[in-house]
C-alpha cells in the first residue's frame, strides 16, 4: 500500500499535518466541530460541500447544547403538588410554627412546580447514498462531550430492543388459568434505554419489518418524552419510511412523532463521494472467470494468516443460543463462500458477531443477485451494512462486475404468490406489498454497491486493521 496515506480520522488527529491551528485537546466547542471539517478539507480528505457544512453547523449547535444536558429530570419528574382544596388528596396537616396563616386557613397553595422545558430536538438527516450523512454524524458524535451517548446501526438497535422485550416477557410469572393478564413491555424497555443514555445516534434508519413497524411509535414516543435526543441518517425522507408496507396505517403516527421531535434535513448534492478519487488498496474484487483469481485469494489469505497467532481451521460462533460454523478461519480472518454466509438463514445478529470477531472476511462465489434471489440478496445487504459499520474488510470473488452485481429483475416467484394468498391479499393491496419489497431491495442494493466501492479503498482497509489496536470492537 502507498505510504503516507492519511484517513480522515488520522488526519483530524494530527493538526500539525493539516492545519496550523492547535486547539486544546480537552476542549471541544461547536466552532471546533466545524473546524474539524475545515481541516479535513485542507488535508484533501474531503471536498468542500456547502450542504455538508450547513448540516454540520446545525449539528454543532446541538453538540454545544448536549455538553451540559441530562434527561434525568424527565425520568424522575418532581411529584405533583396536591390541591389543598381536595380533601381526598390533601394529607392531614398539623398546625405548626412553620406553616403560614394562609396554609392553616386552607388558602391557596404556593405556586406549582413548572414542568421541565422540552428536551432539545434531534435531527433526521436523509439523502442519497454516499453523500456524507454517516461521516457528518460520526464527526458530531465524536465531539459530543456527554458520556451518556450511544451510536449504533439501526438494525443492531432493533435487535437489542427485541432481546430486551423477550427478556422481560420471560421474567414474568407463569400464567394460570383464570388468572390471565396482559403485559406491555415496550414502554418499560424504552425507559430502560432512557436511563442508560440521553443521546442516540442511528445509522441507516429504515423500516422493512412489520414487527419493527408496529412498535416504533410507542417505543420512540417514550424515548422522546423521557428526554432522549435522536440523531439519525437514512436514505428515505420520513414520509417514505415503510412505504407500501403491510398495515402502514398503524405506522403513520410514528412519522408525526419523529417529525415533532427531530428536525428533518435533506443532504443530497447529487454526488456519491464513495465513488470519487479513492486510492485503491490493491485489488479486492475479483471475477470468477479471471485466470488465477481463486489462487490469488488463496495466496492473500495465507499471507494474512502468517500474521495471526492461530492455526487455520473451522470456528463455531454461538449466537442467541445457536451454533454458526465457519469452515475456514485463522485468528481474525475468515474465508467463506457466499452460500455459507447468505445461503442459510442468518441475520443481523450473526453478522454482528462475525464483525466482532473478524477484521477481514473473504467472500467467494457471489452470484449475480436478482429479485428471484431476494432472500440471499437481503442477507448480503445486511451483511455488508454490518461489516461496513464495524469497518470489517472484505475480499470478494464474484460472477459479475460490481456495477452489475444486482439486477432489478426476476420479480415474483411461487413463494411470493403463496405468501400473498396466505395473507389474504390480492389486487391493489398485493400490488402495494410487492412494490414495497421491490423498492426496499433497490434502495438497499444501491447502498450496498456504494459501500462496496468505498470498502475497496486504501483508507477503508487501513481503518479496518485491528492488528495494532488494543481495543476490540464493541459487541
From TrEMBL:
The keyword Ribonucleoprotein does not apply. It comes from the Eukaryota. This is AFG1 like ATPase b. SUPFAM superfamilies: P-loop containing nucleoside triphosphate hydrolases. Keywords: ATP-binding, Nucleotide-binding. InterPro entries: ATPase_AFG1-like, P-loop_NTPase. Belongs to the AFG1 ATPase family. Residues 70-121 are annotated as: Disordered. The lineage of its organism: Eukaryota, Metazoa, Chordata, Craniata, Vertebrata. GO terms for cellular component: mitochondrion. GO terms for molecular function: ATP binding; ATP hydrolysis activity. Pfam families: AFG1_ATPase (PF03969).
